[in-house]
Design a protein that fits this description.
With about 190 residues, the protein is α/β, with parallel strands linked by helices. The chain folds into 2 domains: about 90 residues, Alpha/Beta hydrolase fold, catalytic domain (Rossmann fold); about 80 residues, Arc Repressor Mutant, subunit A (Orthogonal Bundle), CATH 1.10.10. The chain is about 35% helix and about 15% strand. The chain is built from 8 helices and 6 strands. The strands form 2 sheets. The protein has a 4-stranded parallel sheet, with helices on both faces. A two-stranded antiparallel sheet has the order 3-4. Strand 1, helix 1 and strand 2 form a beta-alpha-beta unit. The chain is globular and about 50 Å long. The two termini are about 15 Å apart.
Length: about 190
């Protein structure tokens, strides 16, 4: 069972780990894709600038400079670009991870800039067809900018597969809102 980023890592692991007998996912994301192409509700990244920044950060760390950190999601609601709609992952991520709803001192909202080149190479669903004949269930909300990941994965996968859409749910609402979590758990 994987949720959000682990919703990409679990199918990735199951592609070659035959000990995994079945895969279920909720609110999926392929961590490499947003760095390569962005999300439907976000500004497309400048991949060349990201890679140059990653390469520079790695060189600077090798020269003894401290690691360069970047925020995973906007650190405050004011930092969220105005063109990202209410159901967008980055807006919801700020509302979820950086408020008492789910904030935790061990999750400070940082990633290492030097890791971008490795993240860009990663693709959760490149060989998702290898999970078959083990069952694959992918659960997503209908009101989410990450839904296309589930649709893309199901299109590439082989039977037995199921895409279960929960009407009205957004990416992060499937984490803790009972009206969306309960149908996901039941399925």
């Amino acid at each position: 069972m994987g949720i959000c980023a682990s919703r990409g890592y679990v199918p990735f692991a199951a592609q070659t780990d035959l000990r995994i007998k079945a895969v279920a996912t909720v609110s999926g994301a392929d961590m490499g894709e947003p760095f390569r192409k962005g999300l439907p509700t976000s500004i497309a990244p400048n991949l060349t600038n990201l890679l140059e920044g990653s390469n520079k950060a790695r060189t600077e760390e090798a020269q003894g400079k401290p690691p360069h950190l970047e925020h995973i999601v906007p650190n405050t609601p004011e930092e969220i670009p105005k063109d990202i709609p209410p159901g967008g992952l980055y807006r919801e991520g700020t509302d979820y991870y950086l408020t008492p709803r789910a904030q935790h001192p061990n999750a400070p909202n940082w990633f290492l800039l030097r890791s971008v080149d490795r993240i860009v190479e990663y693709s959760s669903y490149e060989h998702i067809d290898m999970i078959s004949p083990r069952p694959l269930l992918m659960i997503a909300g209908t009101e989410v900018d990450t839904r296309f990941y589930s649709e893309m994965a199901v299109e590439k996968a082989k039977e037995p597969i199921e895409l279960y859409l929960i009407k009205g749910a957004t990416h992060i609402a499937l984490y803790d809102k009972p009206e969306y979590v309960n149908p996901a758990v039941e399925n």
